[in-house]
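From: lab user (bench 3)
To: helpdesk
Subject: output format question, protein + zinc ion

Hello, I'm new to running complex predictions and I'm not sure whether the block I got back is the full result or only part of it. Here's what I submitted:
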Amino acid sequence: HAIHLKDYQPPEFLIDRVELHFDLDPDRTSVESRLELRRNPAATRGDGSLRLHGEQLELETVEIDGNPLTGSEYVLDPESLTLHRVPDRFSLLTRVRIHPSLNTALEGLYQSGDMLCTQCEAEGFRRITYFLDRPDVMARYTTTLVADRARFPVLLSNGNLIEECRLEDGRHLARWEDPFPKPSYLFALIAGDLRAIEDRFTTASGRAVDLKIFVEPHNLDKCDHAMRSLKKAMRWDEERFGREYDLDVFMIVAVSHFNMGAMENKGLNVFNDKYVLARPDTATDADFDGIESVIAHEYFHNWTGNRITCRDWFQLSLKEGFTVYRDQEFSADVGSRGVKRIADVRLLRAHQFAEDAGPMAHPVRPDSYIEINNFYTATVYQKGAEVVRMQANLLGPDAFRQATDLYFERHDGQAVTTEDFVRCMEDASGRDLSQFRRWYAQAGTPELTMQGDYDPAAGVYRLSVRQFTPPTPGQPEKRPFHVPLAIGLLGDDGEDLPLRLEGDSQAPAAGTRVLELKAEEETFRFVGLDSRPVPSLLRGFPAPVKLRFDYGDRDLLFLMAHDSDGFNRWDAAQTLMQRLLLALVRDPDHGVLDAFFDAFREALLDAEGDRALLAEVLTLPSEGYLADQMDLVDVDGIHRARAGLERAIGGRLRADLLAVYRANAAEGCGYVFTPEEVGRRAIRNLALHYLMQSPDDETLGLCREQFAAGDNMTDVMAALRLLADHGGAEGAEALECFYRRWSRESLVVDKWFAVQASSPREDALEQVQRLLSHPDFSLRNPNRVRSLVGVFSVANQVRFHAADGGGYRFLADRILELDPLNPQIASRLLKSMIRWRRFDRTRQALMCDELRRILDAEELSKDVYEVASKALESD
Ligand code: ARG
Ligand code: ZN
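Helpdesk reply: Thanks, we reran it on our side. This is the complete output you should expect:
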C-alpha cells in the first residue's frame, strides 16, 4: 500500500470551479458541493471513469448536470466515489453529512472548544466532501456558510467576503469568494464566537490590506506580538523577495486543538494558539520567538506554497524547505543572525541528523510513503531549507534573487516540482546544478573527513577532504554530493590569513573562502603561509554534513576565543564540551582540566560579547545529542557525566556566576522583546541554572525570589524549573503555587505539565503517570499530549530510557490509546522509540516488544503502522 513518486500520473479530470454550501452544526453538518469538471487534455491514460476521494462521508445525493443518479450508477467504497461514463465536461453536485464533534483526528472539519474549524493539508479535504483531493487540481472556490448566529457569530473562509445576511430561525449566512485558483488542501472555514484585533497594512504598490487576528474572547489581550510579527513579515517579504500580498484581507485564527504548528490556508491562516497568543507574563522568550517565525512562515507560504504549489506530496519540500529558509532569513534579519544560525543548526543536528540515522530516513524528496502525514519531517523542512540555503550561497545574493524572481514569474498559478525550482536556479545563474540535485534524491548525512598538514619549508597547508554518506533504508550506496565548504585559516594572533590557493592569479583577501567539493576526495593547497595555521572549517555551517577533523583541545580553545566566525566559535566550544563529556562517560574519573574552566570563565566574563550568543556557547550539548555521538548509547553514563560537569561548573565558578547573575538584572523598564533583552535574560538564567546545580542558601534564595517576583514568564519559568528539579517540599510548593495562579491559561498549564515531564528526578515517570489522571489532562488536546507524553519521551532521555522498560511501556500504552482517536499524534509519539538499535540488548528487546505489541493491535492506523513496521524491518 505504498505510493511511489515514479507512478505519478497527471489527473484525468480538472476542476475549474467549486461552489460549497455548508449548513454548520457540530453534530451534523451538511455539505453540498457543485463542481465544474472537464477532462484534462494533458492526461495520458485511464478508462474514462471519474474517481473522487472521500472518507467518512455520508452520501445523500449525486447529480450530473442536474440529473440525480441512482445507486447503480456509481460505486462507493470507504475511500472513494467512482462514476463511470461521464461526459467530457459537466457539473457534479453531491450532498454529504459529516459529524465535526466526533472528529477526534482533527483532520477535515472538527470542533475545537466552542468553534468549528478545518485542517485539510495534506488529505483532509476528502473528509469534507467528495473531490479530486490532490494538489495538482487547482480550482476557484465560492463558499457559503450557514450557522446559528448566537453560537457562531463569526463565519470565515478563504478570499473576500461577498455577501452576509440574516436568515430565519436565528441563523445567518456568509459567502466568501477566493479569486485565486488553489488546491483543496488550502481550503479553510471557521465558525465561532470570536473576537478580533484589527490593523492595516499598505503594500509597496499601495494596496490596503485589512489584517485580522481572531481569538476566543478571553485571549484578546494576547495578540499584539502576533500582529507586530505579521506586519514585519509582510514588509520583509516585499523588500527581500519582492513579494506583495494579493487579497484585501489577511486573517489569522488561533485554535486550541491543532495537530501541528499552523496552516497557510489562502487568506485564512489557522494556527495552533501556541503560535499566536503571548503576553509577557504568560509566554517565554522562546514562545515570542516561535510566534514571530511561525507567523512569518505561514505568511510567506502565500507565495511559496499557495500561488505556486506542489505537483504531488513528494514535492512537499518545494514549499516547506523554501518557506523554512525564508522564515529563517527573516528571523535572522529582525533578530540576531548569529544566534539564529546556531539555533537552527542545533535543531538540525538534534532532529534531522537523528532521522537520517534511523529507520525512517528519507530523501528531501521522498521516493515513497504509506501515509504522507508521516513525512512532515525535519528532513523535508529543515534539511530542505539547508538545500535551498546552499543554492542561495552557491549563486550569491544577486543571482539568487534573480532566480527566485524567475521562479515566481515562470510558475505563478502552477503546481510544480523541486526539479522546476532547481531549473530556475540554473537558468537565472548559468550554473550547472546537475550534481547538486542529489541533495533532493539521496538520504543520509554526509560525513566529511578532513586532514590538514603544514609544510613549513614550502609554506603550504594541505587540506584533504573525503566524503562518505552511510547507507539508509533502500539506498545502500550513495554517490558524492556537491558540497560548498566555507573555510578560513587563523594565524598565531587569531586573525584571519589571506587564503591563496595554488594557481590563484590574484592575491586573495583575508577571510572566508568558499570551496566546492564534488569528488569523493579532494585536496586543497593553500600557499604563502609562514607558520602552521589553525583551520576554521565549515564556517556558518555551509552544508548539512558532519565533520571529522582531528583538532587538538588547544586548537579548539583557540578557535573558541578567536574565530572571526561566531558560528564556529560556538561550534568549537560544543566540540570541546562534547569531547570532554564523552570522555567522562567512558571514565567517570577522567579529570577536567583547569584550562576548561578558565576558558569557560573567560567567555562568561566577556562583557563586550553578544549575550545571547554567549548563552549558546556556554550551554552543554544535550543528553540526546551526546547519545547520537555514541555507537552504543550509555543512558545513565551520559546523564551522570553531564549533570556532574554542570555541578562542577556551578561549584568552581560560583563567584563569577553570581556576579553575572547580578550584573544582568533587569533595569526596571518592564519586559521588552528585543535581541539584547532576550540575551540578557538568557545569560542570567543560565548562570542561575549552573548555580542551582550545587545550590546553597544564597542561590536558593535568589531562585525563590525570581520565582515569586519575576514579572515575565521567561524568568518565572526558569526559576520554577530549577525549584521543581531541586525537589523537596519547596519544589512541590512552587509547582502548586504556579498551577493555582495559572490554571485558567491553557498554554501556561501546558508548561506546568512539561516541567514535570522533563524533570530528571528519579520519580519522573511516576509523576507523569499521576498527571495522566489530573483533571486538566486530556488525550484529545494535542498540545496537552505533547506537553506530558511528548516531552517525557523526547526531552527526558534518562527517565524515558530507564532500564526497567517502564518508559517504553508507558509510551506504547499511550500510543495504543491515542491511535483510534488521533493517528497523526500517535504516530509522532512513536518516533522516540524507533531508533532502538543504538541501545544495549536489554533496552533493544524492551523496545522491540513494545513495537510488536503496537503492531499487533487491531485496526492500526496507516500512520502508526508505517512507522512501527519500518522500525522493525531488518536491514
Ligand atoms: N503546511 C503547514 C506548515 O508547515 C503544516 C501542515 C502539516 N500537515 C500535516 N498533515 N502534518 O506550515
Ligand atoms: Zn510550512
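A quick orientation on your result: Residues 151 and 193 are 6 Å apart (CA to CA). Let us know if anything else is unclear.
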